[in-house]
User: Which sequence fits this backbone?
């Protein structure tokens, strides 16, 4: 891995933009197959949302299109530590989604036919069955949806292990090296221009997360994408309670190996309003309006920053893909404290816990809450692997493998047609069908 050094590679079979979980997994899968792959990342490995997510590896509750991918991803996760020779804190303790009332329980029950269709062991639990999964569970619950094969892992350790694995197989990673554009010739990708020079390549994989739409616009591609600010916190250590990851209406949590909990409070989603919020508004407005109680819109520094960026001669105008490098969104402290209080209520046997650290990251969401995965019609050789809408960590290993199959074999082992970029222009975008 290199940072701050001039480019040595002037040619590559594939250039991957982004060293998050998806980009690192794609580079690893490509390099294993002998492909000359170069990864360019404007920051560090796992520097954005791949460092800041919950760490859940969940199959249950997904959109039906995602289920085959998440099931295969789960199989990969089970052997990933052995394959990479690294500790990624993989824990296969299941996932439990709690329901506080019967209407919510009925909604979770509606997902069971999807689980049965794909042969995924998922069941409804009630009463004492909940206690068998979460000993000492407090509160009055109608029940829950439980998938025993789900798990969780450490986001940083997992992403960094995949990046190291890619390098071990011959991939080159250039960190602190922002992309400035993608060049084309005769309707096909011809190269990637970076801060340190240009790399000639016939293939580009866009795994740039929340920044993908900016890169796409420079190629004339209109990618509907919204940023949602996700807040997560880590508590002080506690005695071991459960290896199961829990999704509740007031708090989602998983207990780490050191005894601390990763927690994320429930409630409305935070959206920092910027000029970017106006792009592709027609795709997002119907869902936002229908579920307006789920969103909290914040007008503040991000909007001011975007207004200044739009000024003639601004740094953003000169370098649209670089100007906000190192952006560090602020955690929602109200959510942190509410999540901690709810954790103590749900697990009353816990000692009094404190908050060891808190952080926030920008989740890239599409209007239908499923990824954009696969090639575009033009320019040929440009592949999207983005828009995972908060599901990128769990799906990262399979997304990376499918990208490598697409490029090397010309086809994928799983159907990804539902994730095609063209669905937006075709009017084939479905309403969100996930229940979590």
Assistant:
């Amino acid at each position: 891995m290199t940072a701050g050094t001039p480019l040595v590679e002037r040619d590559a079979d594939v250039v991957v933009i982004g060293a998050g979980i998806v980009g690192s997994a794609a580079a690893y899968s490509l390099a294993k197959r002998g492909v000359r792959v170069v990864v360019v990342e404007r920051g560090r490995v796992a520097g954005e949302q791949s460092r800041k997510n919950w760490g859940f590896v969940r199959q249950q509750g997904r959109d039906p299109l995602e289920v085959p991918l998440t099931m295969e991803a789960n199989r990969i996760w089970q052997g990933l530590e052995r394959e990479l020779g690294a500790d990624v804190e993989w824990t296969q303790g299941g996932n439990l989604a709690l329901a506080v009332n019967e209407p919510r329980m009925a909604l979770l029950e509606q997902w069971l036919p999807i689980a049965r269709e794909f042969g995924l062991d998922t069941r409804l639990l009630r009463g004492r069955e909940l206690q068998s999964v979460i000993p000492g569970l407090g509160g009055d619950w109608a029940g829950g949806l439980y998938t025993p094969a789900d798990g969780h892992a450490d986001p940083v350790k997992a992403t960094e292990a995949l990046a190291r694995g890619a390098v071990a197989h011959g991939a080159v990673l250039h960190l602190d090296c922002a992309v400035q554009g993608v060049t084309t010739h005769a309707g096909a990708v011809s190269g990637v221009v970076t801060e340190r020079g240009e790399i000639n390549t016939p293939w580009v994989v866009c795994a740039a997360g929340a920044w993908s739409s900016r890169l796409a616009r420079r190629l004339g591609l209109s990618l509907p994408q919204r940023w949602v600010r996700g807040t997560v916190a880590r508590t002080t250590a506690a005695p071991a309670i459960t290896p199961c990851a829990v999704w509740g209406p007031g708090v989602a949590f998983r207990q780490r190996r050191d005894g601390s909990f990763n927690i994320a409070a429930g409630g409305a989603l935070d959206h920092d309003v910027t000029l970017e919020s106006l792009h592709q508004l027609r795709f997002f407005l119907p869902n936002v309006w229908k579920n307006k109680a789920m969103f909290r819109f914040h007008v503040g520094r991000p909007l001011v920053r975007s207004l200044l960026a739009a000024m003639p001669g601004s740094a953003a105008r000169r370098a649209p893909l670089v100007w906000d490098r190192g952006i560090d969104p602020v955690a929602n402290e109200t959510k942190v404290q509410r999540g901690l209080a709810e954790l103590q209520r749900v697990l009353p046997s816990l000692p009094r816990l404190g908050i060891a650290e808190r952080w926030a990251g920008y989740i890239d969401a599409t209007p239908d809450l499923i990824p954009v995965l696969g090639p575009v019609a033009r320019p040929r050789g440009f592949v999207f692997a983005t828009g995972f809408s908060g599901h990128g960590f769990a799906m990262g290993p399979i997304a990376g493998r499918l990208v490598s199959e697409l490029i090397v074999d010309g086809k994928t082992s799983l159907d990804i047609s539902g994730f095609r970029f063209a669905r937006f222009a075709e009017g084939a975008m479905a309403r969100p069908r996930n229940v979590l």
Notes: The longest strand covers residues 355-365. The chain has a mean pLDDT of 91. The radius of gyration is 21 Å.
